[in-house]
Design a protein that fits this description.
Layout lengths: L1 E4 L9 E9 L4 H13 L4 E6 L3 E3 L9 E10 L3 H14 L14 E7 L4 E2 L4 E2 L8 H10 L6 H6 L5 E3 L2
Antiparallel strand pairs: 1-3, 2-5, 2-6, 3-5, 4-5, 4-9, 7-8
Length: 165
């Protein structure tokens, strides 16, 4: 598990948010770990705590297996600003979007932002597909079991997922 203290607050009450991390191109494990460090260096992110790394097969895609994790951040950024910071980290890792669900060097998805419910063109929270993906629910349950029900885990029990040492 990863734990880091980041930068200082920016005048807004801190909010706990959860971010899914995944990669399946290049040294995916290194990329996910580097993204956790990059998250802790975002201005307005006070703390980052990451799950273990997990290996999963691609969902609705092809290519090598993914390395996945979930991070909890405590942030004073608003949800749109946090999303923009996540996209900047993706771009810094060489993320390209040639087609939907293409293999990727890094994918960061904002899953939850406090208790916020947002439905806009740019952002939907909670993440609309998180409940159907073991690669999100299993690592999320590891670091925030209160966010995942037994029924949700049972619903994705047929999806292969392996915790890495």
């Amino acid at each position: 598990m990863y734990d880091s203290v980041g930068s200082q607050p920016q005048g807004r009450d801190p909010v706990a948010a959860f971010v899914a991390l995944g990669a399946n191109l290049g040294d995916a494990a290194h990329t996910v770990r580097a993204a956790l460090v990059a998250l802790s260096q975002v201005p307005g992110v006070q703390r980052v705590r990451g799950s273990s790394l997990y290996r999963t097969a691609p969902v609705d895609s092809t290519g090598p297996d993914y390395i996945n994790a979930v991070a909890e951040v405590v942030t004073t950024l608003g949800a749109p600003s946090l999303l923009a910071a996540l996209q900047a980290i993706e771009n810094g890792a060489g993320r390209e979007r040639p087609y939907r669900n293409a293999p990727r060097t890094l994918d960061l998805d904002l899953l939850l932002y406090g208790s916020a419910r947002i439905d806009s063109f740019a952002l939907t929270l909670p993440h609309p597909r998180m409940g159907s993906r073991a690669f999100v629910l299993v690592p999320l349950a590891e670091i925030a079991p209160q966010c995942v029900s037994a029924a949700q885990l049972q619903a994705v029990a047929d999806q292969a997922i392996e915790m890495l040492p």
